[in-house]
Specification:
By secondary structure, this protein is an alpha+beta fold. The chain has six helices and nine strands, in the order H-H-E-E-E-E-E-E-H-H-H-E-H-E-E. Helix content is 31%, strand content 36%. Strands 1, 2, 5 and 6 form a four-stranded antiparallel beta sheet that branches. It has a three-stranded mixed beta sheet with strand order 3-4-7, with helices on one face. Strand 8 and strand 9 form a beta hairpin. It is elongated and about 85 Å long.
Amino acid sequence: MKTIILYLALAAMMLTACTDRKPVKRETEKIDTIPVMVMQIKKCAKLYTAEYQVHKIVTHDDQVKLKGSFLQQKFDFSVPLTTRKIAIPIDATLKAYIDFGNFSEKNVRRNGDKIEIILPDPKVELTGSRIDHNEIKKHVSLIRSNFSDAEMANYEKQGRAAIISSIPRLGILDMAKESAAHALIPMITKMGYKEENITITFRKKFTDIDLPMILENNTIENGRIQ
């Protein structure tokens, strides 16, 4: 009987000891995903994000003018039947890309569950242009000489320059940002971020002043393809 009582007492003590023991808290270690994310994004290297087909018609017209003075009277008038007009259609292909070669943690901003990816500055290439010579329209008066090869080359050069200057207004940079977002967001969501908490942006809105910076080096010079 004493033995049974002893066993019961020991069992009660063990039960009390297990009940009073506080559960051990295991803190989940937060893994810093930024370095991994940067490494994955750098693998994109040169990501071509947008392509734009541009059609431009370059026009020019001139007329012979006579200027001078006679009997102290100045004159300035256009000579009839001396007009020349020309319209040159130019088709060009623009491509935008983002080079992630120098992408780093400086391009990532995290605030709690929200994350912002600041894309490297975009680059734009004029990868091709074509003059449709069959569609060139021109009118040359009988007493005027035809357009020379030098004049034609100059008009074509002006057309390419006009296409290049229109890049900030074409929307190709916005297309580049959207395409980059489509490529990067799935990658980032796999690391545990919700899509609505991810922002993909450029560091600024690019304007005409930024053209020398975003144009591909050694690709375009004075509006001509090298």
